[in-house]
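YM 10:42: Regulator of microtubule dynamics protein 3 sequence, as discussed on the call
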Amino acid sequence: RGGREEAGERAGGAEAVGSRSQALPRKPVPVEAGDCAVCTPLLTHGEQVDVLDRLDFVLTNISELRKEVEELRNSLQHLAADIVGEVRSHLEETQRVTRRRRFPFHRERSDSTGSSSIYFTANSGATNTDDGESEGGYTTANAESDYDRESEKESEEGEDELSCETVRTARRDSLDLVNEDETHLILDSLLDEGLGQLLQQADHLHSGDEREKREGFQLLLNNKLAVKYADQGDFLWRLARAHSDMYDITEDTDEKKSYASDGKEELEIAFQKWDQSAECHQWYAILCGQLAEHESIQKRIQTGYIFKEHIDKAIALKPEDPKSYYLLGRWCYQVSHLGWLEKKTASALFETPPTATVQDALQNFLKVEELSPGFSKAVRMYIAKCYKDMGNNSAALLWMNLASELPVNTKEDSETERELEEMRSILGE
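YM 10:58: structure's back
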């Protein structure tokens, strides 16, 4: 019985091999061989098995690819829904702001209305000393109120005429003393002098501690609300910078997003008139990056394109600014370390996904050191990171030591010092 089962298995294996062989091409048989000739396959049995294994591998990859395409399709649908929702919320917020700005100040009730209310309350709550009923008292009160309103209206009209005449007289006297061109020059000179002092004070507060940064933000915000310098480019990018400072100071996530978003809106208004300001493009890129820290992978990748675009504009407008090269170096370093999922998402969203190498990042960081040696501890730390990633540990240790020589003045410097200690422990191992 065992012999019969073994023979059956061999026969089944032979049939399977035979069925595979039937699908494969066979060598042609010469005509002289006759009808009894047997066609021999082009591939050996081992080669046939290898081909079948390869076909199975291809089918498996096709199945996995189909799953990835389905996942990407779903993510794109979610992305489209998010974009529609954001646009709708933005339009609703714009409409609310428009309604609020239509009447920015509350109207105060005039004295005549107040007197009418007082009369009504007194007559309705007190005992009537006259023979008439309360309705008569209420009517008398309104009559007195109407008389007061007419009297006050006439008085106000007279005061308005007097004040207008006074203004016209003063204007004629001033025009006799100073002509119109000289008046504009004086006003512009005073405005420029006040703006220069304000910007100098804002720069000083920006370089201080958290309390001074808050004070600088409030100073610029108050002057913006006073509509003194709201259309000046140097004022607007400093106001956006102050929003970025508040983002760094604040711990609450919603407040951080609000400061970054408001700062972006200030610069979007500024671009209508100051598109050639390198600082406007630079701080717009910074605020985009800060806001992207709280977004999804798709939005972070989209923001990365915007970041790169505005940093390139800032460098083109002001090529001697080391801060722009530092920001570009950070972008290149981050792109060079994108993960598999981020690269897949970028390829699905854009025809040309962002590309950059560690060498690109290193060149930008070295450019910062060339323009401003010792610009910051972070720059030298990233130079060390680039050399470490490229396998040059000796150069990495050199730049780590150079970074440690710089003083710790800011919160970013403290974080950089901690990263340097971790790098030393890794290289020491």
